[in-house]
Fold these 2 entries.
Entry 1:
Amino acid sequence: MDFDQLMKGHVWQGSTIYEMVINTNPSYAYLLEGNEDVTQKMVMAHVTGHVDFFKHNMWFAHTNRKMLDAMANHSTRIQRIVDRIGYDIVEDFIDTCLSLENLIDYHAPYIRRHEAHTHRPIVGEDEPITVEGLPVERDYMRDYINPPEYLESERRKLEEERAKQRRFPENPQRDILLFLMSYAPLDRWQHTVLEIIRDEAYYFAPQGMTKILNEGWASYWHSTIMTQKVASAAEIISFADLHSGVVATGSGRLNPYKIGLELLRDIEERWNKGRFGKEYDECDDIAAKRVWDRELGLGRQKIFEVRKLYNDVTFIDEFLTPEFVIEHKLFTFRYNRDTDVYEIASREFKEIKEKLLFRLTNFGQPVIMVQDGNYNNRGEMYLLHRHEGVDLKMDYARDTMRNLYKIWSRPIHLETVIDDKKRLLSFDGSDFTERRID
């Protein structure tokens, strides 16, 4: 996030090192007092990399460089609401909104979507539909000429057609917070709180989208600056000890510092030696590839380009190679219920890359969209889960639906896939139901 999560703690070899990087213009950085000189030097070098990344990476271009002032204003506005409405009520609503802050469209600042807007009211006041049928001269012939079941069938068809015409939004909307701001029955203070939380969610989103590249870039520069410019001979051992803690990889987790740093170094080496392009890719001689060196010297230029244009998904998608996976011994793992242990699932490049990209896309969270804000023509919200091979965590789904109901104040429906079958989950404010749909 632009403040590097406001205050970010690292546990390196038993010592906690805090840094705070503020993405303003100019940027500011603060460190926890009491660290040793070599630690302070290293973290300042690391912070220098973050500052450069924030300033030049395109995914941060839209962020407010005066966000400190904006957040101070947000705090003042919230305090005024608390003074007027009451602490407990406001805190409960803020907690509800924070639980939904990931329901935004992370790419909305960079591409133009169809607007979630309609001039039609959410719940209509239409007159009931009646079907007259064919004219009848004699009453005793009425049920024969216009059978009641036929008239009822026609009436339902007309009601369904009217409901389709009244359906909104016209296109599925991923920015559910914006949809709530536009159409939920909110008091003015509630709208203000939701607007503030959405604004800050979008501000912090680029950090989540660039975690690996951002930390890799900062680690690249702290190691470069410390070894070439700053650390004295007496400090190198201490620095190496601290740095090894930063890039250490524990079991069962992906260290963004490690993979970001190593992939940037790999790119630099490849572009220095010309290990890219059609000629290199089509070379089938493994021995020739190992000693391939065109002495192009384009590595530093290339990583600056990467720093400017890429986020984690595009970074991994374009630059992760089978050679890199083999060299760094990457693999996927799974839990074995029979042995009650985690075990290696695959070392195949394709599976490793797909697993990484799946974990990074939308922060590894399910993609949920508003499909219909007037479901059943009663103002109920119909959500669609874009299923991509992994079922929803049902406890999370129920909590999300419960909190959406608090804001929307009408039943919430969620279409998803469970065990390869379409299901519709519903919450009416008190009970959850589930049924199969075609």
Note: The CA atoms of residues 98 and 197 lie 7 Å apart.
Entry 2:
Amino acid sequence: MPENLKSRNIRRIVVKVGSNVLTCAQGLNLPVIDALSKEIRQLENDGQEVILVSSGAMAAGVRKMAINKRPEAIPARQAVAAVGQAGLILTWEKALARYGKKVAQMLLTAEDMTSRKRYLNARNTLNTLLDWGVLPIINENDTIMVDEIRFGDNDNLAAVITLLMDADILINLTDIDGLYDRDPRTHADAELIPSIETIGREIERYAGDIPGALGTGGMLSKIKAARKVTAAGIPMIIANGKTDGVLAAIFRGQPRGTFFRPKTERLSSRKCWLAFSLKPKGVIRIDKGAARALTTGGKSLLPSGIVGVNGHFSVGDPVQFAGPDDQVLGNGLVNYSAGDIEKIKGLRTSEISSCLGEKPYDEVIHRDNLVLTSCTLN
């Protein structure tokens, strides 16, 4: 495997497979699914645990219903996903059964991850399946999809599952060999980027020029997923899922795809939940001193460092906090509502009670309920 992984004990793997890998002109790409099933089984025979995030339901439904493209109307898209999901899980089940592997289907929405109780329930279920030697196959529940409860795409879902399950690596299989400096399907001189340490604007620009076809996420969504997992100390690889033996090659140390180097410090499961699973309901803008205290001093957020509030939120809601340059620095759970924070911003903690008539907390966000991130979350 890549040099950066040699010192890591890679035991739990999340493999995400995209729609363009799993489908072909006739529908589901059976040879590819069979080949990946064999490889997944081999990884498990080698003592590793695998969780599979499988796209392809909507694409398979479109092909099965002989529709030229994904429907625009939400009810039609939900119906197409329902048609495709049945065939998708059955195909995986048959393929893996040939290698003596049982499977379980789990369909999730973003709402399942924002509720701490449901988040933990999902983790407990997945851990039980792994203990039983059953391969979890996860997809977004497109059949009840509405914007408020969508992950957005399965790249994001795969990142969330990686963090949820404290996985050691995320392998994102797509239909090209990795991240290029331009779209290799239209530029013959495009060059593969083998390794990325920092995801900056240039990397985003490269990714933005490489869209997806059947799936909802192009290369940019994969970069956003890489940001999340690497910020939590977990590496990610983008590789070509149609290449024979791609998983085996990665774990033999052969160069495949684009490797995203992780940060050295791993976040706890709860910190990952705070950072990447909750949908922020507002933004608290802070001054330079508060930003420094949070990012380098490990301090709580006090009202004295707050200069503005955007959004409407209540006590206990998740929010982002941003520095003077509007760069989002992290997420946290607030001890005060947006209206009360607007009243106490800039005040010392000793002045909270006289302003509000009470002072339930000194901190607007306690350090135990905040986490720093390296990406802007929408």
Note: The chain has a mean pLDDT of 85.
